[in-house]
Prior knowledge:
alpha+beta
Amino acid sequence: MKLYKNISLMILVLFVVFVSASAQDLTAVQAIVAKADEILTYLDTDFTALYRIETQAPGGAVSVTSATVSRRDRTNQFLVLILEPASDKGKGYLKTGDNLWLYDPIGKTFLFSNATERFQNTSIRNSDFDRSNYSVNYKPIKAENVMLGKYNCTLVELQAVKSNITFPRVKLWIDDTYLIRKVEDYSLSGQLLRTTAIPSYQKVGTRWVPASIVIYDHLKSKNVQGKIEYEKTTITITKPSLEKLPDYVYSKEYLEKINK
């Protein structure tokens, strides 16, 4: 009986040590995710850039959208102003806090939109224009060291801690400089919905900004000559700036004024 108690005690101690070590490991992983967020967040200024969004339908046509994107992370605001195609010129997506509006320059009306909705019928979701916030919206459940091409990465599996998040589950590949190189977005049931690659970054002063982003939409596919092709959206980001912008840029009045 004494031997049995000793063995049981040893098993209990080992279990406690294992759980404690696992918790510490996930705490370290959470810090890695937070650092990756920090690198792509600009709390002390504004971010502005020109986005060229090229979407290729599987086995089909290519469409191009150009837009200026302005973002103020410290107040959770952004403005996306469409420049082309001509039929959509002047449309704007304005986010302030938890509210997101779509401005229609023809009807001169503001319509409520949603962060989870597709941007201009592309593979981009409206929430993609927000600041990087994985460390707040998700918790890590698993991590391992892997190679992604030439990059030594931490592969982190995340689970959403909020119900209004666009994708309930996410996998991040974070390289050893804390730059996010790849993202996989999943449904709650584990279905792969979208794959995003960030092959290149650019420096703006001492800060990092993505230079190109490639998105494969697994919900939009087609069998082309015996091969499954997915809708592909390529985002090219040019003319990035971290200069501060006037407060009025993030307002309905500004959208109305520039469309007069």
